[in-house]
Amino acid sequence: MVRTDSIHGMWSSRLMFILAASGSAVGLGNIWRFPYVAGENGGGAFVLVYLGCIFLIGIPIMASEILLGRAGRQSPINTMRSVAIASGASSRWQIIGWMGAFAGFMILSFYAVIAGWVLSYVILLGSGVFVGADADLANDTFSGFIGNPWSVVGWFTGFMVLTVFITARGVGKGLETTVKYLMPTLFALLIILMIYAAVTSGHFIEGVVFLFSFELEKLTWDSVLIAMGQAFFTLSLGMGAIMAYGAYMPKSASIIGTATTIALMDTGVALMSGLVIFPLVFANGLESSAGPGLMFVTLPLAFGQMASGQFFGCVFFILVAFAAITSAISLVEPAVAWIVERLKTTRVVAALLVGTLVWLLGLGSAFSTNVLSDFYIVGEMTFLDTIDYVTNNIVLPLGGIFIALFAGWVLDSKILDEEMKRDLFYFPAWRFLTRFMAPVAVAIVFVMTILQN
Fold this sequence. Notes:
Elements: H1 14-25, H2 28-32, H3 34-40, H4 44-72, H5 76-86, H6 95-126, H7 135-146, H8 149-168, H9 170-200, H10 204-212, H11 221-233, H12 241-246, H13 255-283, H14 292-305, H15 309-343, H16 347-366, H17 383-410, H18 413-419, H19 427-452
Helix pairs in contact: 1-9, 1-13, 1-15, 4-5, 4-11, 4-13, 4-17, 4-19, 5-6, 6-8, 6-15, 6-16, 6-17, 7-14, 8-9, 8-15, 8-16, 9-13, 9-15, 10-13, 11-19, 13-14, 14-15, 15-16, 16-17, 17-19
């Protein structure tokens, strides 16, 4: 039987679910990766393709995850089992839930390590280390930090303790209370930083041009693949988080309308982040490189050269830390919910158990930049690189394909009618996209990514 309520609690309103799911989607990748790839792949042309992918791939699969979660009202593993049986299908479809929980567990093990770097930089920026700094100091500070195993493990441990504490408090007192305050604060800080970049950098228009200039000549087939992949990964799809959060969603809320709102908020944060980052980078004649170099070397250097940069640099890394923690609690939730259901234990015990296991696995990633930096698992990939590659390039895409196929072709029509009755106008488009467009597009990204590597 499919449950009608959740033993874990419920979001108090549709708004709380939107904030929670947006918190899951908004993470480190939005803030440092999306603005860069947009600027390097055609600006406005890339953004247009990306938005198309969001509507053709991201929203249909996100709506499917929410639908399944709300129909099952359990952890993703047990949700898929019960919904599959209720649909007259094999209980083996629960593999979707297992893949999601596994992916979330694995991703958090290295995501929390990088989030620990962010926490340390809140202190470094606030203490004025980068005021008037040059490139050598910025590089040496970052290299010195990640090269020190005690520092990396210490901040990683602190971040995991915070994640476990919030998750252990439950849906209402833990997850909802956290996103209720952190997400509006995140948006407010983003707006303040964007105004700061516009007023003080003198290069705000250059940042706008970098992001939005319509350069079709830069839009290649690889650019389209990047846009499709970004649209899928940025919404936290395939990792069980959205399905787990959907289990706590009020019955009265529109699924497709809610998924669309979340996708637009996620995209908005990514674009606004670019309008914060690139005016500061261009103002100081720095390299707009992607990844850790941009976040932990280029930006601190830029803030160090700006008026009031010590304060606003600290604010920026607080913003990034907020994005990291709201994503982390969603990554740990599927496994915690399953352990509560399976072992009939409390959330405190489940959160401590999952958190400890994540921490132990995460030590491999924490040591990948220092004592294990010369230890490669596959080719020239470190432990952290390998975990990142397997989850993002294999597990998540396969999970997304299976979710679309199940929701589009297998799910019982009575369950579908009950859950989608508030979305009748959009239902035909959702069903077509979920059955055909989304799984084919994700499969193309999956195959092309594997072949290119």
